[in-house]
Amino acid sequence: MQHSDVGMNERAKTSPPASFDDAELWALERRWYDGQLLGHVEALIRFTQRHRERILAWAGHQPSAVQLLEAIKAVIEQSGTIDASSELRDQAREIKDEIWYRGEKGDFDRRKIQLEWTERHAASWRQWRLKEYLFVADRCGHQLQRALHSSATGTGR
């Protein structure tokens, strides 16, 4: 089957796919097989359904399965977030852990610790979460594509 890129967004055709170095890929694989990324699957399905029109516009006319997955991943990257409330809860949990850890060492200034965590770790935390989403999207591409099509027909999954 010949894949046509007619109608694909120029950025999707020219931007390299998200890449992982060996250590990142190993960590993602481990988290996947330990079941730690399973919560992202449902969030990605909901995201795909919510952003159906953007994804299809990005993919172009009669996209292949590969083009659909690349469009899904491009919209994920463009959005930068999948489930903001869940992500905020996860970040708050990380900050709470840091407060506990630093408290064990005698540092009890919660506000200072929160600010320091944000300055030092917030950007890299978001980048890592985005990599998790893209990794899971690759793993569950068929599910996401089914969700994309089912949201159009109203048939569910």
Task: Considering the chains and any ligands shown, give keywords for the structure.
elongated; 8 helices; 157 residues; disordered N terminus; mainly alpha; single chain; 0% strand
Please describe what this structure looks like.
It contains 8 helices and no strands. It has 157 residues and is an all-alpha fold. The chain has one domain.
Layout of helices and strands, plus pairs?
Blueprint (H helix, E strand, L loop, with lengths): L9 H5 L7 H12 L4 H13 L1 H8 L5 H15 L4 H21 L5 H30 L1 H13 L4
Condensed summary:
This protein is mostly helical and 157 residues long. 75% of the residues lie in helices and 0% in strands.
Strand content: under 5%
> Which sequence of SSEs, written as H and E, runs from N to C?
HHHHHHHH
Kindly state the percentage of residues in helix: over 70%
Give the domain tally.
1
Largest sheet, strands/sense/barrel? none
Number of helices: 8
